[in-house]
Known about the structure:
Mean pLDDT: 76
Number of helices: 8
Order of helices and strands: HHHEEHHHHH
Low-confidence stretches: none
Number of strands: 2
Amino acid sequence: MPAIETFLVSRFMVFTLVLARISPLVATAPLFDLLALPRQVKVVLVVAMSLLITPAFLGGSLPAVDNLFAYGRLLVNEVLVGLLIGLGMNILYSGLQVAGQIVSQLSGMSLADVFSPGFNEDVPVFSQLFYLVALAVFVALGGHRLMIAALLDTFAAAPPGHAALGENFAEVVINILAQSFSLGIRAAAPLLVALLLSNLVLGLVSRTLPQINVIVVGFSVNGLLAMSVLVLSVGAAAWTFQQPAMDVLDRLKEALVAR
Length: 259
């Protein structure tokens, strides 16, 4: 009887460790973290992936677990690995939302914030547009498949129970933050430059023709200018999203697989 109990407990531990590594990825990664995606679908996805991966490691060795504290430490390590992949990709695209918010404020479009079901709050129009364009490019590149492939690579390098972050994971997170800021600036640069020049011209006009209501004219001019420049530059913005996503996935994989 104790042998059967040990057999079942070991199988349960492997499944829960695999589940702990996959769950944070689905909870935080782009596309999977959308609030519009029902929770039931996320749960089914996590459990299905765990059931597919677990049999490959049933015959492997697990670290000695004498108490719940040791078991909890293993679970925390697994959660950190999955969290770093999903949250790392989300951090990359957070810079786009900040850039969109700045553009909305400069163009006066921040007054037209709309409720986004994906964020469950009011979001500037440009922030939502940049995020959706980046998400579309991410899906077109197969980024969701690449994230899962990166997760599977971590299982190959570190089986359940042996997960650990690489020594350079802090440096990787800092680089992702810097790249997120750079990506947001590159995507919004045409709009920022155009709106800056527009504000300078309106300032000169207000000095030479003080009878013109610059505030009323400025809202209209900046709004039309922002929309026109956006139509012309959205293709280039989408192009800038491609390579950073691939680079970030490679860095995350190196940080997790490296020993």
